[in-house]
Design goal:
Blueprint lengths: L4 E10 L4 E9 L2 E7 L3 H4 L5 E4 L4 E4 L1 E6 L4 E2 L2 E2 L4 H10 L2 E9 L6 H12 L6 E7 L5 H12 L4 E5 L10 H14 L2 E5 L3 H13 L6 H6 L2 H18 L3 E3 L5 H12 L4 E5 L1 H5 L2 H4 L19 H12 L4 E2 L32 H10 L5 H15 L17 E11 L18 E11 L2 E5 L2 E2 L19
Parallel strand pairs: 1-4, 1-5, 6-9, 9-10, 10-11, 11-12, 12-13, 13-14, 14-15
Antiparallel strand pairs: 1-2, 2-3, 5-16, 7-8, 16-17, 17-18, 18-19
Helix pairs in contact: 4-5, 5-8, 8-9
Amino acid sequence: MTHSRTVVRGGLVITAADETHADVLVEDGRIVATAATGSDVAEGWSAERTIDATGKYVIPGGVDPHTHMDMPFGGTFSSDDFETGTRAAAWGGTTTIVDFAIQTKGHALREGLDRWHAKADAQCAVDYGFHMILSDVNQGTLKEMDLLVEEGITSFKMFMAYPGVFYSDDGQILRAMQRTAGNGGLIMMHAENGIAIDVLVEQALAAGRTDPRHHGEVRKALLEAEATHRAIQLSRVAGSPLYVVHVSAEEAVAELASARDKGLPVFGETCPQYLFLSTDNLAEPDFGGAKYVCSTPLRPKEHQAALWRGLRTNDLQVVSTDHCPFCFVGQKELGRGDFSKIPNGMPGVEHRMDLLHQAVLDGHITRRRWIELACATPARMFGLYPKKGTLQPGSDADIVIYDPQAQQTLSSETHHMNVDYSAYEGKQITGQVETVLSRGESVIDRRTYTGRAGHGQYTPRGLCQLLD
């Protein structure tokens, strides 16, 4: 049931900009005011519903700009659809996802977009938008890019990896970048040298190296760095901004840092799996490493320090999940005896906010940086701010009451993602989502799910808000 007026009282309100003890007034799905707790203004508010946030954090709902719900890959589909995936997102304090609509080679962008709208329509528990995956660059699709930007699909993902599937060559990438330089769109790049990787895959399999750990060994950090460098140079030639997805290697971070030192509009994201997991996981026995197969791959632990440093120095601006789950039984197992057939992807949409809160406690980032990486910057990067990503008058009332003291143990027994394992099984963390409002409506109420499929609305996006 919707309440027209809600007051959230007594919490520590944390945004990317500041931390204040304040009450938040919500009316008809929007934040209308904030005022210091105990002030005459706040005390004067009356509402149908009061949420007591004493001793808790009050933070913006998370914005996860990189998910793959119901995505076809390697003869199967990611195991979360838009209903189960957005419900899990809500449990983890994420109130907006941006998923990827896929253009099939030889077909129009519009056809792919329509297919993804059909998958998501009336299924989502929280709000959602789309990026467009470009598989085919030609005069027709270049023209379509202009139309999509106008209607709120303002970012386009391209792949230097996966020859024969999503791969684009440098000429196609340059043309697409030139187009976004004109229409204001943003190219998102999967930066790995797929042509070279395929040679190494073939050689590894021929030599009998078929285990999951070889997935990490053939997808070399140098080939991520090389592709990142090349993508940056192509974007410079095109005069367009660039966003590099799922950065995992120290050498790739160095390429981004070097470009940003020159003042170039180049951005990068990383994901919790690269910050908390490593090649040790890929080497787990009895094919257990398959659970951790994703691309870019997990790296040796030494890379983590460079990723954390990049998040602190703003050489990396966003933490997304690249949520793309496949069950171990029946899906990951497709690659027994041939690591190249293991579906690429990991579950994560439910745990991003909590893992980053743990990173605050571990001293990697500050509380405000937590909100910046998980809420504010993703919203700005993809044209959703200040509707999403902050708590200010006029913003959507996407509000999370977060208990910074609660202890939890991550496990497939208790998570809400539709997948039969947890990448963080048994990991103990401090901090947990208690209550979630999406546009003022309760989705999680004191650790009980109160949301519904179809509450989530499709949200068109503006242009990247981080460009001069």
